[in-house]
Design brief:
By secondary structure, this protein is an alpha+beta fold. It starts with 13 loop residues before the first helix and ends with a helix.
Length: about 950
Amino acid sequence: MPNCPQCLKSFSSARRVAAHLAQPKSKCHAWQRERLGLSLHSSSLTVGSTPNSSPSLDGFHDLPACDGFDVVQPVHDAIDTFVPFGDSDFDGEEGIWNPSVAESAALLAELGQGRQIQPFSSAGEVFDTGETFLKRFELDPFSSFRRTNLYYPFSGLNDWEMANFLLRSKMSMAKIDEFLSLGSVRTLPLSFWTAKELRSRIELLPTAPRWNYRIIATSYPTKSPAILYFRDSLECIEALFNHPYYADHMMYTPFRVFTSAERVVREFSEWMSGDVAWRMQSKLPPGATLCGVILSSDKTHITNMCGGKVAHPLLISLANIKMAVRNKASSHAFLLNALMPVVEFIHPVHRICSVLEARLFHECLDIVLQPLKHERRTGARTLSQLSRIQCDPNDVERYFALCKDFRLSGVAEPFWRNWPLSDPANFLTPEPLHHWYRKFWDHDVQWCKNALGAPELDFRYSVLHPIVGMRHFKDGITALKQVTGRAQRDMQRFMVAVIGGAASRDVVIAVRALMDFRYLAQAPRITSIIQDRIKATLAEFHNHKDKITEEGLRRGAESGSALNHWFIPKLELMQSVAPSISELGAPVQWSADTTEHAHIEVIKEPASTTNHQNYDTQICRYLDRVERCRLFETATRLSALGDADDTHDQDLAVEDDGAEDDELNMADDEDAAAILKDIWSSRRSVPDFFGVAEKLRAALPGSIPHPVRTFSSGATALRVNRRPSIKRISIDKAAELFDIPDLRGALADYLSREGPHAQNFHSFGRQRRSPPGAHLPFSDLQVWYKVRLQQKSYHDSSSLEPVFTINACPPNRTWKYGRHDAAILQVDARHEWPASGLTGHTVVDVRLIMCPVSPRGLRLVWDDRLLVYVWRFDIVPQRQADVDLATGLHVLKRATRASGEFLGDVLPLDQIKSYAHLVPRFGEAADNRFTSTNGFHSAQSFWLNRYFDKEFYYALSL
């Protein structure tokens, strides 16, 4: 039976394969387009386009030579369909478009020259043989029983669901027995009645990579045996590579991305986009597929009391999986490959014990990773240095003393010595969590604390305007204990604005430069221009760091005395970040956030179900059962879906000429994707305001509430609650409640700008023309106290960012002056957020969110638009720049009219594009009357804090 060359799905005829590849929304169709050299991403093509509207060939001769490049647009929204050039381009009734090279190039010329992708030729060849995930399920020894009972060894779906629930519920065996003994449970037709019977049936399920153990002999005595629990590393890689959930998120070929047709500026993102992957592929046979193995190892506490048990997991994953999926803990892309032995050596010299532990670690890695090593390739500098050490490695003390001359650790046989294509310079990647964030807490925070004093720094943090959904340090930061990586990131959001004006200029510049370094290096896509900026920020820090030591801000952690040197290993590691970007791709993909979180799933949760004896063996058994259950659930649900497809195909074969039902096939693909997402992804997904807004736009008139509560504009979507906070209030009462004296005049000016027909855009800052008591065709308003805002990612418009809440609450007991937030408002329709930054936009204070209520019996054109009353902030020019040169932040003051009143106006709510965070300019010493509830009202000037959110930073900085 013929197969699809991408998904390897079997079809009854080649005709059906062709129709499958022609489905517009399928992943296989996209793969076919890429093979044809037509991987286009453009918002200018629409579903409604016609074949006669094809681009001309006039600009074809102006295109650069293709030489293996695929040209794509800088807009990352993939369109659903591609417009053919004419009816003659379709292959019969199947409707398969086969464009020629000239037609493809002409279409690209019409769309404009955009990002260019150069894939590695003759790499990642796809073969039509091999065992897919479901094929392996069908080859299970018990597959013959599953022809009549898909859920064997369980009696049926209900029996399997009960077993799956109990095994993944973290209940002990005693609790499971107690549950199964309940009278109501006894009435159920189950195939098991004890936990032991249940676990024995799980052993009959198709297996995940099996666990093994080995007792490691050590040259020096230990207090307990060194037992290594591990799984075949090649089987783990195969399990990831074979997994259906990752199939649509895999990369098989190294590639290079250029931002323009001139191919001057490179763009780095995934590991496959770096030079290391390209060089490795060039050393492999033609057609070979390069698999990038990711290993992560770090000790983690199982218990903090009762002896403080520690586990040392080794996690494994694939760099071929796209980082957007791999770095989500809910995707389960990191498997537990081994539990390294945690032993205590008996030796009088403590440093030698550390050397022995390092040797044991490398020896265990050598065992675990042996299946991934197929040929010997050495010659690295480290191996050359090791070969020059003339000493018996078993004489640990003397051997380690000789290693010091080469700055080596004392490990005689590194685990990577015989691993093909391996090089520590390539596989030891930058690690943001432990290297950047921890360095910020250990050093940057201490410099700032010593510069301002702990009480002053804590006070400034405590009075910052709170952001809904983000941590507010109400007691400051200097007394925090057990600071997590997330807390360190939250501190970073405010540090530059907090110390601005208080610390000396050079100190602020040094701290700000390191902050820019972290934010720029965390971008998921980094061009060679940004790479140079990352180098420049680090150089800027080194140019100003001497002021830190001159003022005695760098001090010993224990002695508290001033230090004059800069021996900071984490700072030295930062030097390797910029060079690693072109080699290994974006550094953010190597952050240990995901693997640290995986410790909860693969170590801490399994340990909580044990009897607190022999943790390692019970953890391995628990994970084996859970993985079997999850894989079995995946296989049975996909098989059940496939059985329904086969039934439909048989029905089609009986019909006239075997016409294809493309819509049903597309629905099948979507159903399979939904099943995989339900099993393997997080149940707590990010809200999609854009999707809701699109559905509301397509809804029939009169079928949705009025006005529409969720809507989108450009890269921003907004939502207000279904029920207003105030259902009906008069204009004058609202003006009094929210302290907006010119509200009636502002509404009158808005209506005069609207005219008889509703406009889509309004400018800001015109002279107030209407009097305070202007007559209006309505007298009441609906009022909302908040609006929620969501944006698309700056680097990937298909990715949605978390939701921000913009408050516009009247005064109450807690908030004496009301709770208001700042926002970015678009004031020029020619400039779009975030691409234009502040150009064409202004910062505003959101005072009132409202909608006019039409008089009874009337329906006015503008009464379906949500409006917002705002006060504008003006940017205060600085010396030779728009921003303060030390902090790199804009300085803002409230704009006023000639009368001294704040400059306010009414505009459509959809012109708000982003949340903005303002920090009072405290000066050398903060006013002790400031609180977190009055600072936004009382401060005379503010910093526009671009560091509160990475997406906001990129909009203002790139």
